[in-house]
């Protein structure tokens, strides 16, 4: 019978020993959940099995916090490929092939404007998961075995992959007008709601209107005029928020709890009409300073640091970004729930006054039935877009680090994993070639992110 070796230090040592010796390894370790308040520790048990499958050594893992159930099972059973499936079911954990694609189970984060869908999010508001289709576990628990081994870079998290899913209604589905000093992000438009935008052209508020800028006596005057317009609007916005907060208290809704658009509309129905009209006029005056960039499905928006931006209602996008929470809010047409202040004064001093635009994508390689485009190359990660004809395939060599893969349109096989639209995978470092095959029924578009 296997013996359970309790290890309370860094599990990377035992993982490396397992990979070297190719022997069954069973150990427990303390994982400091740095992404939660006060970093509470959780004791996890890892069961690792090396098995020869069609001439290739594969490494299977079950990682669980249910040590008591696992210990009881391990005392009565040998560990092999068949029984690992049973163990995973006993502890309600996925059975993971460590160097095959990890299927990512997203976590949905409610927002005043709609929702974010995180595929690699790791923070206090939520943690994405790894799943085998039956069970799932937090992504950081699996990465905790050895971030360096699985990611292939000096980081404990991959780039953040998420979907922005705004409501289709004007104002209610418009995102914050915000800028970032350090966070790098890129949007790929995957859907434009035709009820919101009948001609299929959505928009992003992106930088500033250059005609309005030229009308000002100077750039500094333009900044101050915009700041004054935002201040006027914020005063009215907060007056409306106070009315709605009274209703929140009456109905037992938390002051900073997101609510759906129907509820918010009902609350706005009791706000004095003259106040709502003044808010509308002030919002239009404020927005007149900004630039609106039309967007269609397939467009790519690279967001430069210090450029204020706000994706508009009904425009669904896939976003890749630096995994940090950092922003400055210049304005928002709803109550801001995550902080009690706007950052307009500070942001106005930093912000770029240019109008945002779309950049043409360069082609990395192409053939008769495929093209591989460079979406973006940031300092810490890059994103590529693979366009495959129906039935076409492409084999990409090992990268030496992890890769994130999401199907944007169509259906495809990724290293033998069948994927549909918005399915996402993490391919750990050491997973070998990346083979992508579009299904015969239709072309496919696949987004690929890798660190630099």
Largest sheet: 9 strands, antiparallel
> Low-confidence spans: pLDDT under 50, at least 5 residues?
none
Strand order of the largest sheet: 12-11-6-29-26-31-24-23-22
Got a strand count?
31
Domain count, please report it: 3
Q: Kindly report the CATH topology of the largest domain.
A: Jelly Rolls
Q: Which descriptor suits the 3D outline?
A: globular
What helical percentage do the residues reach?
10-25%
Q: Give the class from helix and strand content and strand pairing.
A: alpha+beta
How far is it from the N-terminal to the C-terminal residue, by CA? 44 Å
Q: If you had to describe this structure to a student in words, what would you say it looks like?
A:
With 452 residues, the chain is an alpha+beta fold. The chain folds into three domains: 5-98, no CATH class; 162-350, Jelly Rolls; 362-451, Sandwich (Jelly Rolls), CATH 2.60.120.10. It contains ten helices and 31 strands. Strands 12-11-6-29-26-31-24-23-22 form a nine-stranded antiparallel beta sheet. A hairpin with a 3-residue loop joins β23 (370-377) and β24. α7 (219-251) packs antiparallel against α9 (273-287). The radius of gyration is 25 Å and the shape is globular. The relative contact order is 0.13.
């Amino acid at each position: 019978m296997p013996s359970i070796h309790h290890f309370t230090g860094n599990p990377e040592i035992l993982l490396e020993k397992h990979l070297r010796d190719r022997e069954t390894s069973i150990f427990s370790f303390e994982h400091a959940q740095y992404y939660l308040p006060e970093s509470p520790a959780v004791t996890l048990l890892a069961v690792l099995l090396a098995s020869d499958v069609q001439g290739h050594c594969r490494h299977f893992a079950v990682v669980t916090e249910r040590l008591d159930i696992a210990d009881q099972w391990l005392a009565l059973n040998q560990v092999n490929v068949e029984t690992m499936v049973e163990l995973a079911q006993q502890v309600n954990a996925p059975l993971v092939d460590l160097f095959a694609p990890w299927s990512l189970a997203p976590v949905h984060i409610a927002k005043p404007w709609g929702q974010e869908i995180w595929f690699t999010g790791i923070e206090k508001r939520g943690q994405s998961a790894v799943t085998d289709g039956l069970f799932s576990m937090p992504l950081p628990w699996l990465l905790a075995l050895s971030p360096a081994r699985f990611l292939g870079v000096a980081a404990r998290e991959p780039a953040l992959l998420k979907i922005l899913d705004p409501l289709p209604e004007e104002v209610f589905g418009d995102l914050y007008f915000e800028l970032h000093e350090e966070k790098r992000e890129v949007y790929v438009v995957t859907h434009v709601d035709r009820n919101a935008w009948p001609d299929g052209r959505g928009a992003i508020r992106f930088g500033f209107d250059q005609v309005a800028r030229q009308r000002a006596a100077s750039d500094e005057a333009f900044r101050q005029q915009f700041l004054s317009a935002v201040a006027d609007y914020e005063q009215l916005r907060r007056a409306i928020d106070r009315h709605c907060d009274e209703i929140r208290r009456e109905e037992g809704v938390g002051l900073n709890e997101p609510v759906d658009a129907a509820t918010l509309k009902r609350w706005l129905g009791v706000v004095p009409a003259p106040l709502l009209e003044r808010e509308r006029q002030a919002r239009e005056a404020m927005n007149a300073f900004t630039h609106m960039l039309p967007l269609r499905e397939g467009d790519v928006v690279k967001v430069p640091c210090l450029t204020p931006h706000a994706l508009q209602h009904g425009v669904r996008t896939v976003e890749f970004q630096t995994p940090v929470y950092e922003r400055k809010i210049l304005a928002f047409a709803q109550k801001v729930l995550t902080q009690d202040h706007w950052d307009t004064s500070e942001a106005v001093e930093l912000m770029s006054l240019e109008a945002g635009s779309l950049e043409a994508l360069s082609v990395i390689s192409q053939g008769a039935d495929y093209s591989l485009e460079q979406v973006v190359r940031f300092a810490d990660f890059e994103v590529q877009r693979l366009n495959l004809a129906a039935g076409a395939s492409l084999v990409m060599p090992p990268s030496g680090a992890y890769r994130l893969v999401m199907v944007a349109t169509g259906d495809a096989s990724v290293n033998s994993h069948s994927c549909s639209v918005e399915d996402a995978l993490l391919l750990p470092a050491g997973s070998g070639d990346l083979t992508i095959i579009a299904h015969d029924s239709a072309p496919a578009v696949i987004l690929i992110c890798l660190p630099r």
